[in-house]
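Standup, Tuesday
Yesterday: got the pipeline producing structure tokens again.
Today: sanity-check two examples.
Blockers: none.

Example 1:
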Amino acid sequence: MNRVIVVMVLALGLTACKDDTSVSQKAGSAISGTAADFVAGLGEGVDKRMNVTLQADPGLAAHGLTVTLGKSRGMGSKEAAVYVVADKAFKGKLVARALDADGTEIGRATAEVEFAADDARYVTFQFNEEMDSQLVRTYAVVAR
């Protein structure tokens, strides 16, 4: 009963103001805007949580390679993806070492890659099932 009275008062107030927008339209707009902001914020939060800290071996630069971004594949995943930019052609092996908070290696994965000059893409590293990915704080990447 109280809700009906509140809705009627709001409707009368809007009518008195000569507003062409209905209460339901205004409520819907407010709710959808808030929901969109929430979803966008949630997506950004998830995206940032998936980012990982990278340590690039100085030898990468000698091969013309740069790593710019690392992402885990989600909670409990044994995969990590690293974005690699190649200034010059490279064919070989990239090694990612998973390091815990103390800098101790707790996992290692390799990926055979081939880049053309001025090439870039994500390289996915698959770690052993035994590795506890929740302990990983940094991925150290080297070229061989």
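Example 2:
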Amino acid sequence: MKKILLSLGAAFLLAAGAQAQVSYGIKAGLNLPKMTVSGGGASASTSTSTNFYLTGYADLPVAPNFSVQPGLSLQGKGGKVEWTDNIESKTDLMYLEVPVNAVYYIPAGAGNVFVGAGPYAAYGISGKTKTGDVKNDVEWGDDGLKRFDAGINTMLGYKLANGFLLNAGYSFGLVDMSGSDGNGSVKNNVLSFGVGFQF
């Protein structure tokens, strides 16, 4: 965990040293998260649930058409399972996330297409489960899910000259969130769509 946070901090400091104009942005939208469970040589995913995200970021140019974007984000994750007796189990997880994305801009029409990718580190701040009408708080730690998560973000979008942007993304969780020491693993994966504005 310390190595990941130090790497993210180093990327931020490197980008902050750039001599180009810094801009800031905010993005919000829909998350369609699912959880991938694997063990015993097999893997399966939950169905996607619905959640949201809210991200503030800095755009730090480091070369022509190329920027580094560190940020701070609230990310809703989780997943759901529908049982054969028509009972649904849903898990909603909320993370405070620090992404650092490398973004490349391609001039196109009245704005720029942008593509990007980069690492993120996240910390679980709340969680709820609901099975039928029964609701419970998520257990964090050895008897539930690990709070720390990390992975890779990817993004694709279009930013107009006035700063308005549309974006989509997919994040791949790389950390086993299972709090137990068993042979299985649980990882987050999130498809997202949203809008934003860069000042």
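Quick observation on example 2: Confidence is low (pLDDT under 50) at residues 15-19. The radius of gyration is 18 Å.
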